[in-house]
Amino acid sequence: MLVAPGARDANARDEGNKARIKVLCSIALQSAMDDLIPEFERSSGHKVTIDYANAGPVADRVQRGEAADVVISTVSLVDRLQAQGKVMAGALVVIARVGVGVFVRRGASKPDLSSAEAFKRSVLAARSIAYPDPAGGGASGIYMASLIARLGIAAEIAPRTKLAASAEALFAGVASGEVDLGFNQISEILAQPSIELAGPLPADIQNYTQFTPGIVAGSSQAEAGRALIRLLSSPAAQTVLKAKGFD
């Protein structure tokens, strides 16, 4: 059982000191948070409301002043929020890192991902590919658009490229067979039973997204938020995150 460091102290046991905290979190972490948040609630007595969105929109909501206690997004975005005074000052702790993966319909043949050149050939051979629309602010969609441009194949595959407005649409397109190859963060791929991870991007073209939590400036539940961050940083939580596809 996971136990947040310090979560079982006298204050946490005192009903009057139990908090309700709101968390804004990158959707890439949802599969792990589905396990970690209930354990935090059990061990601390605090209650959590958590909203998920792509990393960019999560940070934008904090930047616009939405009431919240903890934000979990990419290191660069939380660092920017901290510089703007939207997140409390302090050292940022990386709780998870995840790479981009390639996925196919369950049972379908898997592409050759042994090298950057093999990856390029596999993409060019596909009838269609899909990844999150970069306009949505998701890290994997932004990276895939830049990678395909860097490989010099953007114009050639543009007619066969689908930009998904949501994760649901992305996974459904591949699961139905409409799309041959999909690309997204590995943690999100592993959480989907209708599709199958073909493998991570080759090492020389892989991109890792690092996630960090921050206490939102003005939060009245900063201590409860820090207790959550301690749990997310704990060795037990890291074991859960690893099982969900994070480094």
UniProtKB/TrEMBL annotation:
InterPro entries per the UniProt record, alphabetical: ModA/WtpA (IPR050682)
Source domain of life: Bacteria
Pfam families linked to this entry: SBP_bac_11
Leader peptide range in chain numbering: none
Name of the molecule in the record: Substrate-binding domain-containing protein
Organism of derivation: Belnapia arida
Lineage: Bacteria, Pseudomonadati, Pseudomonadota, Alphaproteobacteria, Acetobacterales
